[in-house]
Amino acid sequence: MVLPDTRVTLLQRLHDGRDSSAWTEFCAIYERAIYSIARRHGLQDADAREVSQEVLLTLSRRIHRFDPQLDGRFRAWLSVIAHNATIDLLRKNRKHQAKNGVSPSKLEASNRAEAGEGDAQPPDLSPRQGPAPLNRNEQSRIFDQEARREQFLWAAEQTRRGISETTWLAFWQTTIEEQSCEQVASQLGITVGAVYVARCRTLAKIKQLVEPFRESGE
């Protein structure tokens, strides 16, 4: 398999089952994104965690098959795996509910909604009904957003460990909290120029850490 972009270095490392640090980095970012998608489908915490573990296990078996030339972007490919695992568990729950008195018509309507067919909405199968399941297109978009967010948070945390608290606060307060450089400089007791330098250097470190997760065309 040819990997056409140097930014998929992490995927190359994942092919080596002995590279535990690669899997640690991957799980730190994508496990939370998978969990979030499962929750958006209406799964409870325990079920969403089960889906996350199932997806990661499936990925460990299939990662060697991924080819960006055939499968497209990795996040979209992973989103499909997450979607299928979530739907499988939802259907398993539906079957359990059917055995406990849910009508076949409601069960079928729910399955159609989960699969993203038409505008069907899942009926009320229990007193504690969750949000309507996402169709694949919507899930792919949301999963991409969640993954990018987790990438940033992971990289930011890694960066924070290697810089001073003042440098971190200068970055966080101006970039995330959107305070002015003058205001932050006054709060931290440093010059405005030092705030600019801290922000730029910290952002550069974060971008460097995120780079291996970027995909072709981004």
Automatic annotation (TrEMBL):
The keyword Transcription applies. SUPFAM superfamilies: Sigma2 domain of RNA polymerase sigma factors, Sigma3 and sigma4 domains of RNA polymerase sigma factors. Coiled coil: none annotated. It comes from the Bacteria. The keyword Cytoplasm does not apply. InterPro entries: RNA_pol_sigma-70-like, RNA_pol_sigma-70_dom, RNA_pol_sigma70_r2, RNA_pol_sigma_r2, RNA_pol_sigma_r3/r4-like. One of its GO terms (biological process) is DNA-templated transcription initiation. Residues 95-136 are annotated as: Disordered. Signal peptide: none annotated. GO terms for molecular function: DNA binding; sigma factor activity. Pfam families: Sigma70_r2. Keywords: DNA-binding, Sigma factor, Transcription, Transcription regulation. Residues 30-95 form the RNA polymerase sigma-70 region domain. NCBIfam families: sigma70-ECF. Belongs to the sigma-70 factor family. ECF subfamily. This is ECF RNA polymerase sigma factor RpoE.
